[in-house]
């Protein structure tokens, strides 16, 4: 089949799912399989495509039509201008999370922090910690995750981005630090996390696409706030005085997370909004 016909048939299948932009996705899938950019497809629409690629193309298109995430099908996603590998078992980085990354990078630059120490709880694919390390290389960063799959993917991304100052270790929240020596306590300038924050009720109504993502990266307990409480509590013992704790939050969680932080003694708490004017990030200082 030639490129043009593949696109026409692909669009026809994809448009049966209203969450999909059919031409855009058919083009993305085909250009990835042919290893060319979109302009090539447009300029060579009469080019015959090998049967093996044609079969692979329709397999992907059909899975996508059923709601399987495009990012898993392609095995990668762009975040903060970098390419990150993703696969089933690891949360797909969201554009909204760039707000948290931008805030941290601005903070490090404004304060002219060099040799800063940053800890991320729950790195997933590594999108947050690796983007920060890329933009602010003069620091030493530690990222933890409980999921082996996430750590494998994050390590792959670290290698692909040529990063050497990020250490990635397996840990359930702060567990890995419990038995370590004093020099890992009260040692971080910044602790950051995009924890699972979806509450029980919302979990039942998740969009089709989110269903393919790991529950462990999404479910934040009955009220969605479990990890904010656990991390805010323990981070106090791992932050330097004057250090900051920054969270991504769900759109209705701003005031509740602020209250949790106040109860644990943090000060100067602020809530930042995303591009749709929804509460997205909470930042707090340790005295
Ligand atoms: N932002 C994700 C979503 O809405 C949730 C990620 C998380 O729980 N940290 O699907």
Q: Describe the sheet with the most strands.
A: 7 strands, mixed
CATH class call of the largest domain: Alpha Beta
Q: Say what the CATH topology of the largest domain is.
A: Rossmann fold
* Count of discrete domains: 2
Write the element-wise H/E pattern from the N-terminal end onward.
HHHHHEEHEHEHEHEHHEHEE
Query: What's the shape?
Result: elongated
The average pLDDT is 94
Spans where pLDDT lies below 50 across 5 or more residues: none
State the CATH superfamily name of the largest domain. Vaccinia Virus protein VP39
What separation lies between the terminal Cα atoms? 66 Å
CATH-level-2 architecture of the largest domain: 3-Layer(aba) Sandwich
Beta-strand share of residues: 15-25%
Question: How many strand segments?
Answer: 9
What does this 3D model show about the protein?
With 287 residues, the chain is an alpha/beta fold. The protein has 2 domains: 3-67; 89-285, Vaccinia Virus protein VP39 (Rossmann fold), CATH 3.40.50. Helices cover 40% and strands 20% of the residues. The strands form 2 sheets. The protein has a 7-stranded mixed sheet with strand order 5-4-3-6-7-9-8, with helices on both faces. Strands 1-2 form a two-stranded antiparallel ribbon. Helix 1 (3-14) runs parallel beside helix 4 (51-65). The longest helix is centred in the first third of the chain and has 15 residues, at 51-65. The mean pLDDT is 94. Bound molecules: glutamine. The site of glutamine has 8 residues, from loops. Glutamine binds next to loops.
